[in-house]
Amino acid sequence: MEYKLNHIALLEYLDPTNLSYQEWVNVGMALKYEGYTASEWDDWSKRDVSRYHPGECFKKWISFEGSGTPVTGATIMQMAKEGGWVPRGSGREDRELGWDDEISGGDYVVVDKNWIEGKEIHEPAVWNPVQQLTTYLSILFEASEQVGYVVDTWQNDEGKFLPTKGAWDRTAGELIQRLNQCDGDIGSVLGDYNPEAGAWIRFNPLDGKGVKNENVTEFRYALVESDTMDIEKQNAIMRELELPIAVMVYSGSKSLHAIVRVDAANYDEYRKRVDYLYDICRKNGINVDSQNRNPSRLSRMPGVERKDKKQFIVDTNIGKGSWEEWQNWIEDINDDLPDPEKLTDYWDKMPELAPPLIHGVLRQGHKLLLAGPSKAGKSFSLIELSIAIAEGVRWLAWQCTQGKVLYVNLELDRASCLHRFKDVYAELGLLPANIDNIEIWNLRGKSVPMDKLAPKLIRRSAKKQYAAVIVDPIYKVLTGDENSADQMAHFTNQFDKIATELGASVIYCHHHSKGAQGGKKSMDRASGSGVFARDPDALIDLVELDITESLLKQEENKAICVVYKRYFVQHNPVYLAQSVSQDDELSAKAMEDHAKRALYSDVLSMAAAEVKRAVEAVRGRSAWRVEGTLREYAKFKPVNMWFAYPIHRVDDVGSLKDIEPEGDAPAWKKASGSRKDKAQKERRSKAEEFEDAVANCNMGDPPTVKDLQEWFSSTGKEVAERTVRDWVAKFGFMIDKNNGNVVVKKNGENHD
């Protein structure tokens, strides 16, 4: 079975801006030799904006008459290899992918044209032009649909007869009626035609206003024709392919005209289906004329004569009954799915697993999704991951295998992105020893939907041997409705294509849905369809932790101690060793007091300024819990970390282990917290009430305990003196031993 390349797909690997004039001409000659059109050469040539001239391709095309040593598709194939294309059978089961296809699918070869036998055609035994034409009209049109046809011609400079625009103002029903009444004289109905030229008819209905594509009302049929093949072989291959042919007409010359059912809903779908149809025909040996793509195209009219030969219907209703039936049949017999395997064949010699890229999380060539809310620093985390892979160090809690990384930047401007990488390197304390392992593709303002970006990415990356491709963020290239499972399956399949073609891991990030996430499972937090969570081999999810004020105070204390200790080490290490205890090193107040005693004033000022910045940095932190859903590895324990711009740091000391994510506290704890909040509020109210009593119960002068007892007992409920004394101590007051008055307690004072 012959493997026939799609040379148009190979042009993706050829950049016309990099070719010489002769190389550009060779591409055109090769395309013509392989049966393509000047329009396809012209479309590709437009990529070279500076050298492209409208109409030049079509003028050159006419001059390509062929020679004894023609330029063939092999030239394009060799140039594509040099541009990064890897041919089939080179270690990967490659084929030229259509980027709207699923990963699965074969080469769509049904017919081995080298072995197929031709099938003859035969003129009708009885020549009945009216029957020929009415049969054609009845099969292709509804009675009320308007039909376009041409009987008038003109001759060009070469003497070739060409059709005029013709007529388009009659319905199929009207034509059939008049033909049945014309007593065999079809010229009296259509107008007389030139028997040297024959006549033409359009196979799709029109609106009665013209004969252009926009005048087509139903995109029902497409024309398959080849005038470079033996007629009998054309007939045999079309039948062997089971094309859903409504009518097959002999042109009276070198070709058959197969009117094929495509049943498209609109022009866009028509184009896609015709491209698919022509691709299948080419791969199976039909040198299809691509100039017949248009839905308003003319075809040869049956029932007329052309240079002593008849244009007649060869057959009707050939092959499959509909486009859907035929396409499903093609796909079914051409799938490239592997055969089932017996486990016994591999039990004692299992295939090797892909090596790890992120140990315990992701294997090489697999996919990872990082999900989290907008303030989680996802982009910084992916930059940290890029650096970890490039340098072969840890990312968060996991060791990475060293390799090359492509970071696809879709959001940041180029300068900001580059600065981020340098800033993260600095904050991580890493030397840029292997920055040549990181490549950045800056596409802000130039991004395209993922199904268009994927082939471009693969073409540029084919020779790079990346260990990972990181796409950040995916909303910039998202296609379709993110809540639609089938549309998102098509979107995520693009990542499969990249991973399969490049052998690289694909890593991308997505945002959470709205609302509190703490009460959800990690795989339910990503916004949109559940496909996002089910598709990747590893899902890493970030959820924010609800930091308490007491924890922030502890972190401030640590930060202050670190600053002062560093200044002691730099400016007075002897004092640190002799006068600062281990307990002092854990107390911000103690370290501040030591600093005031042992550091010079200018140094103390610098330390104080840095302490202020350290406290601000602590207040600017956010805390996160990393959870995961893994396909290849056992579930890991949640990892807690701080995000202090611009990097994440794992909480190695356990400060965050008991902190609950937002909205994630169990019911009993929420109730307990509610009671504590209520009690704290009540305590504040009681303190305020006591403070008010001290200020007012003795006409503004400091009261005695007796005065306060009488004040509170005046409401009718007796308050004991002991209770009042407890309140004095509890709410920050004291009893002056000199006069027994209740006054505000000052630091260090204790008069009672």
How would you describe this protein?
With 752 residues, the protein is α+β, with helices and mostly antiparallel strands. The protein folds into five domains: 7-82; 129-333, Alpha-Beta Plaits; 356-544, P-loop containing nucleotide triphosphate hydrolases (Rossmann fold), CATH 3.40.50; 548-620, no CATH class; 667-744, Arc Repressor Mutant, subunit A. The strands form seven sheets. The chain has a nine-stranded mixed β-sheet, sandwiched between helices. The chain has a five-stranded antiparallel β-sheet with strand order 6-8-7-11-10. Strand 7 and strand 8 form a beta hairpin.
Which properties best describe this structure?
752 residues, alpha+beta, Alpha-Beta Plaits, Rossmann fold, 5 domains, 23 helices, 26 strands, 37% helix, 17% strand
Give a brief outline of the structure.
This protein has 752 residues and is an alpha+beta fold. 37% of the residues lie in helices and 17% in strands. The strands form seven sheets. The chain has a nine-stranded mixed sheet, sandwiched between helices. Strands 6-8-7-11-10 form a five-stranded antiparallel sheet.
Write the layout of secondary structure elements.
Elements lengths: L6 H4 L10 H13 L4 H8 L10 H8 L9 H10 L46 H12 L5 E5 L2 E3 L5 E3 L3 E5 H9 L6 H4 L9 E3 L16 E7 L5 H10 L4 E6 L5 E9 L2 H17 L14 E3 L3 E3 L2 E10 L4 H11 L22 E3 L3 E2 L3 E6 L5 H14 L2 E2 L2 E2 L5 E5 L4 H15 L9 E5 L7 H12 L6 E5 L12 H18 L2 E7 L19 H4 L3 E7 L4 H23 L1 H7 L8 H11 L2 H19 L2 E9 L8 E6 L2 E4 L16 H30 L8 H9 L7 H10 L2 E3 L6 E3 L8
Parallel strand pairs: 14-20, 14-21, 17-18, 17-19, 19-20
Antiparallel strand pairs: 1-4, 1-5, 2-3, 5-9, 6-8, 7-8, 7-11, 10-11, 12-13, 15-16, 21-22, 22-23, 23-24, 25-26
Helix pairs in contact: 2-3, 2-5, 3-4, 6-7, 12-13, 14-15, 17-18, 17-19, 17-20
